[in-house]
Amino acid sequence: MNSWPIEKEIGMQLAPASAWISLEDCEPVLSTSTNICESRPVLVISGLEPLPNETIVRVEGTYNGESFDCADTICKFHIVETGPDGVPVEFWAYSSYGDSSLVYTARVRVQTADEGDPDQLYWYVDVLSSQWQGQSVATCSDSWGVFPPVGGPPEWLTTPTYSEELSSDIPYTYLAANLILQGAVDASSCADGGLAPGQGVNQCGLESARDAVNEWQNRFDELILSTARETAVPARLLKNLFARESQFWPGIYQAAGDVGLGQLTENGADTTLFWNRSFYHQFCPVVLPEATCGDGYMHLKEEEQAELRRALVGSVNATCAECPLGLDLTQADFSVNVFAHTMIANCEQAGQVVRNYSGQSPGDVASYEDLWKFTLVNYNAGGGCLAEGLTHAMGEGLDLTWDNVSPFLTGACSGAIDYVNDISR
Fold first, then answer.
1. What is the DSSP string of 152-170?
2. Which of 302, 330, 307 is nearest to 317 (CA)?
3. Pairing mode, if any, of strands 66-70 and 104-113?
């Protein structure tokens, strides 16, 4: 039998060059997701070549319409103060292999402030770009195309440096009742064991549970803080959300199908899985075969979507009959991250609702804070209610502010008004 060598060409997809944007000699301010510089800021565009034995040979782009060109792997230049909406940037890199990166975009805002000391000027710099390598920008800023207020957002949309700064001491009645019911608090000396009709608690029961209530409402603070740092969802927003939704009791509310610290429903799970694609691709293979998950949530069969929704709702339900206090606290801890990703999904959907009904980018028609308030409407009452409020406000020729939109949240949507005002206090 004769044999001979055969050559076969096999195509390979090589990793392309890329380019990234960062700042030099500026300090990130974690609590407000911004950057502060004590001298005129330097913008850095860096090329990255993934192929061995090849290198980036040139970085080019435009900054506010002005071209820059550096025969190197890195391009650096000083930037000056901009208007409140920032300026556009385009950038790309060339490789010795003969190819180039994609053309990337960014928006850069530079604002100055003396912070009360006229002898020392500071520069606040914010960058919106998929290629940003510095301090995480405030969640959804890039998607919405809007910067937070200069120097940082209002307190309810911030993340403190230490978990102790999230501490609260509110006398939550629903939490007190659950702690009494589960035997964590002895209220036997109170009338009716400290309880009131409708899963409530009487004044004696509330006083008996005070220390336990204070301790319990702060038990998730460290986890909320670490989750906020990981996801860039503001820690105080998450804390206020859990307070409003469940008073930090991570079970099922009155068997109504609202589950966990943030009271997730199947409809809410649907929003999370559809609008937060990165989370979907993490969660789906835990429940369904990885090959089934590949094309995205909307391409799953109806029964597969339903299975995934039920699994997500189940993942935040800490109810456990055989566990101490009737709760699996490991499950409750896991759920904090799920609710952060659920909030990201809602900010994406809320932004799309604004686009659909205004015909413009969300950041062109609404402020950063108001877009978060619209996100909370979406989370609590759904995109239909948000669309109704926006439509009526625009029909009256009004700007899309919370004060203008909220009066049009009527009927079944009206509960969202107190909901948003409570969380954003």
1. ---GGG---SSGGGG----
2. 330
3. unpaired
Q: What is the residue range of 202's domain? A: 169-216
The torsion region of residue 385 among left (phi > 0), alpha (psi -120 to 50) and beta comes to alpha
Q: Determine contact, residues 288/306, Cβ cutoff 8 Å.
A: no
Asked if 330 and 409 sit in the same domain, the reply is yes
Residue 77 lies in a domain: yes
Please name every residue paired with 273 in a beta bridge, in sequence order, or none if there are none.
Answer: none
Among 52, 89, 93, smallest CA distance to 69 is for: 93
The predicted model gives 76-98 an average pLDDT of 95
Could you tell me which of 147, 151, 121, 135 has the C-alpha nearest to residue 23? 135
Whole-angstrom Cα distance, residue 274 to residue 6? 48
Looking from the CA of 113 toward its CB, the CA atoms found within 13 Å total 14
Tell me the per-residue pLDDT of 228-243, one tens digit each, with 9 for 90 and over: 999 999 999 999 999 9
- Are 97 and 186 in a shared domain? no
d(CA 359, CA 350): 14
The pTM of the full predicted model, rounded to 2 decimals, is 0.88
Q: What is the CATH number of the domain that holds 415?
A: 1.10.530
According to the model, what pLDDT value does residue 152 have? Answer: 83
Strands 56-63, 66-70: parallel, antiparallel or unpaired by DSSP?
Answer: antiparallel
The pair phi, psi for residue 156, each rounded to 5°, is: -70, -10
Please report whether residue 164 resides in a domain: no
Mean pLDDT of 109-128: 85
